[in-house]
Amino acid sequence: MEDARVQAVVKLANCLKTESRVKMLWAMKKGATRPMDVIRKSGENPSTIYRIVDEMIEAGVVERRELGPGQVAWNLTDLGRAALDAMERVTTMEPLGAREDRERPRWIHFVLPSFFLILSGMRGLQDAQAGWFMGGAILATASYLVTTKFLD
Q: What confidence tens digit (pLDDT) does each residue in 101-113 have?
């Protein structure tokens, strides 16, 4: 029983494994049912689209209807719609750790640069050299940029 579920999940994941396959399913969800419409909207290679759709039919994501002699239409099944809706919900979720209650305090961006400015200013006054002031300003600017880039 467990192996059958694993195989079903693998088949479903296989239907969503590339951008062009997701675009194919998305095109079907938006109403493209004929093969040429799906090819045009998804950008999938026409030589492989039938093989891919056969895999999707086997997975239960797509169903095939005969419209007439030589004419077919592809439609999403309920499973296909549910899979796309679930993927859309997952991709619009807020990433873990991005909650506002875990935001880092902003004071850290000013403590380190201020430390470098004060230290280099004291050393510059002690040695009576203006180079210490310039070096401190450069170091303070660099530390501010580093803290804002990596701590935000």
A: 555 567 777 887 8
